Amino acid sequence: MRLSPIVPPASLALLAGLLAAPALAQDRPVMIPTRDVSVAYRVATEPPADLRMSWLVAEQKLRVDMPGGIGWSLVDQRTQKMSMVMEQQRLVMELPTGGAGGINLPTQPPDTARFTRAGTATVAGLGCTVWRYEDSATKGKGEACLTADGVMLRSTGTHQGKTGTLEATQVTYGPQDPARFQVPAGYQAMPVPGQPPAPGARPSR
Question: Which residues form the DUF4412 domain (predicted)?
């Protein structure tokens, strides 16, 4: 079975770069929503794809519903873990994060990123500040438009040679159901392709 990433590869790279705040910058955007919110995005792929990102602020969790209903992913900021859930197959994959070959979490800030203000805009009916960024380590650059309370409404740029754009089409503020931010119990663990299965994990069929 072929696995899709949390979002299209270029957009995942952008999320890692554009949602990351520089550790030492004095003028920087709020990068993580400060209240519960669910945002529908259009990703500029061929053909265009839609995904939804929802934040449960109290538990510092992000849920990403992938295009086409193929599954969803969960980022736990507290534990720095990412899980991919495939509902139809009842499978769950723990994705490696950080280090060589690992995924940079969208909530994980690289110290090498630098941001500068570049005006304002209106996206999905909300005002946002445009921030240009550049990461000297990865040679990534681009810009993101973020609200004052940390919601990313638009991002575009390159990161590690990958280019992509996503833009919010609908922003819904309101309490999120904590049950939607839990990996389902009883799902079969699946190893990451190219890596040995975790100890005690049942092999996939």
Answer: 47-149
